[in-house]
Amino acid sequence: MADIAGQANDGMDEDTQKGKFLTFSLGNEYYGLEISYVTEIIGIQPITEIPELPDYVKGIVNLRGKIVPVMDVRLRFKKPFREYNDRTCIIVIDIKDISIGLIVDSVSEVLTIPDNNIVPPPDMKAAQNKYIKGIGKVESEIKLLLDCEKLLTDDEATNFSNL
Questions:
Q1: Which of 142, 125, 71, 137 is nearest to 100 (CA)?
Q2: What pTM was estimated for this model as a whole?
Q3: From CA 161, how far away is CA 144, in angstroms rounded?
Q4: DSSP string for 13-47
Q5: pLDDT tens, residue by residue, 151-161
Q6: Is the pLDDT of residue 9 over 60?
Q7: CA-based, 20 to 30 A from 98: which of 68, 70, 71, 129?
Q8: Domain boundaries, the chain
Q9: Buried b / exposed e across 52-63, counting CB within 10 Å, b at 16+?
Q10: Taking the CB of residue 2, how many other CB atoms lie within 10 A of it?
Q11: Which InterPro entries does the record match to this protein (predicted)?
C-alpha cells in the first residue's frame, strides 16, 4: 500500500499526472480516480460516528491532527454494506477544497489510461451513473472512472467543511 500511496501524488506536476488513475475495487467492480485528487491512502482505522449524517457518511477520522470526514463509497453507490477487513482502505482525496476519505474494498494500482482508451458512460438515468465520468479500457478489463467533483453535492461540501 505504501508504494501505491507513494505513486499517488509525490512531486508530480499536472502533466505527469494526466491520464493516471488510482484503481480500486468494490466487490467485482473496478473503479478509477484521477490521481491528481488523491493525497494519500491509509488502512481502515477507527471512525468516530457523528449523529444525523447520511448513512454513507461513516463519520470522521483523525489523520495526524486533521479531522477528515469519511464516506463509504459502497453505500454512496447504494450497494450493500460489507464488513471492513484488512484489505479495506481509505483513499484521502481533495475535492472542493475539502479533504475527504473514501472507504473502498481494496486499492489495486496506479494505471495510465490514455484518452483514446476512455469512452463516455452509457446515457442511462441510473443515479449511480452521475458519478461516472468515463469508462477506461485496460487490456481486457473495464474501469469505471469516477468524477470526483460529483461525489459531493455543494450542500454536502458545505456540511463537510463545517465538521
A1: 71
A2: 0.85
A3: 27
A4: -HHHHTTEEEEEEETTEEEEEEGGGEEEEEE----
A5: 887 787 777 77
A6: no
A7: 129
A8: 2-161
A9: ebeebbbbbbeb
A10: 8
A11: CheW, CheW-like_dom_sf, CheW-lke_dom
> What residue type is 15 in one-letter code?
D
Strand order in the sheet with 20-26: 106-112, 20-26, 29-34, 141-146, 132-138, 118-119
Report pLDDT digits (tens) over 15-28. Answer: 677 889 999 999 99
Q: Beta partners for 72?
A: 103
3-class SS at 130? helix
* Grid cell in block for residue 68: 477528515
- C-alpha 32/C-alpha 26 separation (Å) is 11
The pLDDT tens digits for 54-96 are 999 999 999 999 999 999 999 999 999 999 999 999 999 998 8
